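Chain A, query sequence.
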Amino acid sequence: NMPGMNGYDLARNIRALELAHGKRRTPIIAYTANTLGGVIESCFAAGMDDYLAKPVELVELLKKIDHWLPIGLPGPLTFKLPIEAGMLAANVGEDAATQREMLWHFRRANDADAAVMKAAVDARDLPRSIQSSHRIRGASLVVGATGLAAVCETLETAARAGDWEAIVAAMVSFDAESERLALHLDGLAA
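Chain A, predicted structure.
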């Protein structure tokens, strides 16, 4: 209910600008006192990624930031990165060059697999959705991308159950976690 433009219109305008200019998706979190009567669904329909209900505790805010932003803050407030370094090292070794190479190969393969996953969901192709989510989950675990692996596990379970509502809902998290991971990997390559 902002003056001049409400939050729904703002989110739609941001999404249109991102699309028009080929920009990455910016996480948008609604902060609202009204969580009844379809407001949350309207937030998602307008292009928002998540919501917080007023009033919010600092711990809740930090959890949302931790989920949506692939950064770490100095000091006592630290945020989990999309790649668990210990898991990556355990699976591919301690050599930084080898890790970078593995992450580069993962990024290329994951981009292709994510496109297949999205096409499968759009086509309502359960077998391909199961196969794609399973494949992405396995590769994600190798490089320590546990957030993406968890989302893919949810997708695979929903696809095996034929639960399209759950699949569509999980795809929102899949897109967000994929973007968070891509931003992190791009930062490593820079």
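Helices lie at 7-21, 39-45, 58-68, 85-92, 96-122, 126-143, 146-161, 164-189. The CA atoms of residues 98 and 137 lie 21 Å apart.
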